[in-house]
């Protein structure tokens, strides 16, 4: 069967099962070991029986809930491929907007080792990307040893000056040592319904943030007074779409002289809350 026809069949199958049609392309590219351009060039070719069998196995697994990223082994993020496993949260495109904001705010500034920290690093997508884009050292923290193993592999493959610490949120960090605090903590409310692809295959440790989804923001903001330097530069959190005002209020109450704000993502939903001190750069 020609690749184009097989791809069309697969897309129809996925849509009927409630999955994204685009997943068929990702799986077929992985089977054929080509990028999207390579796939388009080969659409008129015949799909070999062995490749067809492997493609069918991947499709069935995805229909049954296994994320595409776990089947192909990686997720593109900010122009780089990050290895993912069931031990880490799969990086989302919305988080790239957090990277853009931090780079826009801090680009050109110089920081000492330990002054930029990424809490709950997971795959290392935020920490490694910031280290590469800012060309500055970044320290990352995660409570999961398995997650840190994935993050270390990504740093080894992609580069960046990154230090990895294991511990519970801010616990491994020294007093008065941090100037930039970045985190995409677990923020899903405990009774929120998730798709089976997410609920059954991504770590609940990285998803759920207590009854109201705000447990980790409270802990991070309360604990930040210990680890932040007096001339801290920036605090940035990714948030759930309905949590912006509450997290911003927490930051305002803790840091009344800092500028705080809420940024919307490309879909018009609240996505980033920040507190920034600009006086320390003047």
How many helices? The count is 11
The arrangement of helices and strands along the chain is HHHHHEEHEHEHEEHHEHEE
- Measured between the Cα atoms of the first and last residue, the distance is 65 Å
Residue fraction in strands: 15-25%
* Protein structure class: alpha/beta
As laid out across the biggest beta sheet, the strand order is 5-4-3-6-7-9-8
Our count of domains comes out at 2
Tell me which CATH architecture of the largest domain applies here: 3-Layer(aba) Sandwich
Rg over CA atoms, rounded to whole Å, is 21 Å
Average pLDDT over all residues:
88
- How many E strands? 9
By CATH, the topology of the largest domain is: Rossmann fold
Largest sheet: 7 strands, mixed
Helix content: 40-55%
Text of the CATH class of the largest domain: Alpha Beta
Shape: elongated
Task: Describe the 3D structure.
It is an enzyme of class 2 (transferase). Methylates the class 1 translation termination release factors RF1/PrfA and RF2/PrfB on the glutamine residue of the universally conserved GGQ motif. This is Release factor glutamine methyltransferase. 38% of the residues are buried. With 282 residues, the protein is of the alpha/beta class. The model has no long low-confidence stretch (mean pLDDT 88). Helix 6 packs parallel to helix 7. It has two domains: 62 residues; 205 residues, Vaccinia Virus protein VP39 (Rossmann fold, 3-Layer(aba) Sandwich), CATH 3.40.50.150. The chain starts with a helix and ends in a 6-residue tail after the last strand. It has a seven-stranded mixed beta sheet with strand order 5-4-3-6-7-9-8, with helices on both faces. A two-stranded antiparallel ribbon has the order 1-2.
